Amino acid sequence: MSLLQNIKRNLRVIFMAFEIEFRQSFTDAFVLFGIIVQPMIVAFMALWMLKDQVADYAIFVVVGSGMTGLWTTLLFQGGNSITGERWTGTLEPLSCAPAPLRAVVSGKLLANISQSLLSIAFCYTFISIIMGLPVSIAKPWLFAGSILLTVVAFIAFGLIIGSLFILNPDVQRFQNGLEFVVYIFSGFLFPIALLPMWTTPLSYILTPYWAARALHAASSGSGSNSEIYFCWAMLIVFSVVYAIASKFLFKSILRKAREDATLNMQ
Amino acid sequence: MGAIEVSNLQRDFQTTIGVFKRKKKTVKAVQDISFEIADGELFGLLGPNGAGKTTSVKMLTTLLIPTGGTARILGLDIIKDADQVRPRIGFIFGGERGLYWRLNATDNLRYFASLYYIDPAVSKKRIPYLLEMVGLKDRADEKVEGYSRGMRQRLHIARALLHDPEVLFLDEPTMGLDPVGARELRQTVRNLQSEKKTILLTTHYMFEADALCQRVAVINKGEIVAMDTPAKIKDTVNDLSVVEIEVFGIPQETFEKIKTLPVVESASVEDRDQRQLLLVHTSTSAEAIPLLIAELQGLKMGKVTAREPTLEDAYVRLVGGE
Questions:
Q1: Distance from CA of A180 to the nearest CA of B (A)
Q2: Which residues of chain B are within 8 Å of residue A259 when distances are taken between CB atoms?
Q3: What is the dihedral of CA A15, A258, B167, A100, to 10 degrees?
Q4: Taking CB atoms and an 8 Å limit, are A13 and B114 in contact across chains?
Q5: What's the domain range around A249?
Q6: Nearest alpha-carbon partner for A66 in A230, A215, A244
Q7: What is the pLDDT tens value at each position of chain B, 322 positions in all?
Q8: What residues of A are in contact with residue B97 (Cβ under 8 Å)?
Q9: Which CATH architecture has domain B4-229?
């Protein structure tokens, strides 16, 4: 089996998992709430809070609240879909199929992220049309590139988070805590400069931080092109690190789940 | 070399007891079991609920790591060579879980076909073939949530056969099915055996094991207590006679007293709608029947019969009348 053939068949698994996840979750009211309603609520509050604090606050809020929707959907929908597989008894056949579970989870994450990208579109519509505020993207091509890398980075980050949900269903208890930790340390809605200095290294190892920074800089034009490229480089480096780490993490976590008998919920 | 070789396999589970002062407790689900299944053989693993059947199957299908012993499938170690074992085995677990209810049968199979790296051109032909084989062709486009239990069970079989595995593990495949559905499923299992697949079937329906399996092992409390052909296992109770008495509302204390009678080897009660069937294993039915009737004095009774023992009676004797 050549490397190319292996990539091809795993890509088929990713797209199949994407299709199945997309079709199954898009009718879920909770998912629709996370994509449409929650970002609007966050946007409304952020507009009110940041009105006199940040220049070009409307686009800052579109990107920031869109990112919150992206992260919430990834964390809850991605995590819950793995827990759901455990409850419905499908995690076992998925775990002992020849295709790597990482490919299945990647497909699921891609579906979750694709759905939540709609959050940004809904926020844009809400702020520009319903609230009547001017929203323009200063560097559209760099913004598009940042979106693409954000998707890749979130999948890589989601693989790390997803592996924890495979390890143990109790991880679900920490979902809410994780949600706000990433909101805050990634600078989705306010700059991390407002946080204590000792927290900065934590932000730097989170890909959502670099994604938020690149998207804010490209949308508002507040950052130079070189700053955006630097964010892209960091996104690529950390995505590769996360992807490699997830390979080992999945291997050891699947073994641990088989030892602890946590692949099924009886 | 057998298709399945199991040697001293063990599996413990850790549980905790208590709320504040939590103590760890080790439960031995499978204790030192060994058996070998020949290529193309249909082997039954029988036992009551909680005997260790499903745990054994989960270890053999690479879903659980044993705490001791070894097992090889087609010569491959289930721990070290798990990745090579998986494409060559298929499994179904009893019940309705393990399928995507919001998808139809075809999409469920399409998804699993991709997970087994089946070429789309091949799966395009194989999926309709399997759906026809399990009798779901006409309902293939309906969501699984609308299926009956039997239909879901048949879809499980189709899923397990997608990649044409050499070894099949069927864990209580007829559990909860109506008699017609169970009969159809047994016929499907027979057809699979005629295709020379090696099959490990777990069940607690003795007539099913008797009708299908070439050899059976009886497992109780995690240990194999007997292993042979169904006929030879039945021979172990040749010295027994079974007395069946229909009763209406037998009190627990009467039943307990019957179990202590010297002529009674073991006894059990089966519920049959508003009546119960008291089953008594005895070496001498002629002596036992008057004694039993005397104990049941005052209760409404139906038919009283004495018959030859079956595999189920041998099983009851082996698992201690449970």
A1: 30
A2: 64-65
A3: 20
A4: yes
A5: 3-260
A6: A215
A7: 789 999 999 998 887 777 777 788 888 888 989 999 999 999 999 988 888 899 999 999 999 999 999 999 999 999 999 999 999 999 988 777 889 988 999 999 999 999 999 999 999 999 999 999 888 899 999 999 899 888 898 899 899 999 999 999 999 888 777 788 788 888 888 888 888 899 999 988 888 888 899 999 998 888 888 899 988 888 887 888 889 999 988 888 899 999 888 888 888 888 887 788 998 888 888 888 898 989 888 888 888 998 888 888 888 777 765 4
A8: 88-90
A9: 3-Layer(aba) Sandwich (3.40)
- What pairs with residue B167 in β-bridges? B89, B198
User: Which chain A residues have a beta carbon less than 8 Å from that of B92?
Assistant: none
User: Which of B95, B102, B114 shows the shortest C-beta gap to A24?
Assistant: B102
List the one residue out of B25, B8, B14 whose CA is nearest residue B68. B8
DSSP A180-192: HHHHHHTTSSS-G
Amino acid identity at B21? K
CB contacts of A12 in chain B (<8 Å) are: 114, 120
Q: In total, how many domains does chain A have?
A: 1
Q: Count residue pairs from A and B with Cβ separation < 8 A.
A: 78
Tokens linked to B218: 């009886």
Residue A265 in any domain: the answer is no
Which among A2, A28, A90, A170 is the top mutation candidate for probing chain B, defined by the most B β-carbons within 10 Å of its own β-carbon? A90
In a domain, residue A266? The reply is: no
Mention every residue, 6+ apart, whose C-beta is less than 8 A from residue B112: A93, A97, B159, B162
**CATH architecture under which domain B241-318 falls:** 2-Layer Sandwich (3.30)
Strands B68-73 and B76-77: antiparallel
Write out the DSSP string of B181-218: HHHHHHHHHHHHHHTT-EEEEEES-HHHHHHH-SEEEE
Q: Cα–Cα distance between B168 and B162 in angstroms, integer?
A: 12
Work out the minimum CA distance from B216 to partner chain A, whole angstroms.
Answer: 26
Ordered DSSP codes for B127-138: HHHHHHHTT-GG
Residue spans of the domains in chain B: they are 4-229, 241-318
Q: Which amino acid is at B116?
A: Y
Residue A26: closest C-alpha in chain B: B102
Residue B162 near residue B112, CB atoms below 8 Å = yes
Single out the residue of B9, B4, B122, B172 nearest to residue B72, CA to CA.
B4
Measured in angstroms, the CA of A75 and the nearest CA of chain B are apart by 22
User: Which 3 state secondary structure label does DSSP give B302?
Assistant: strand
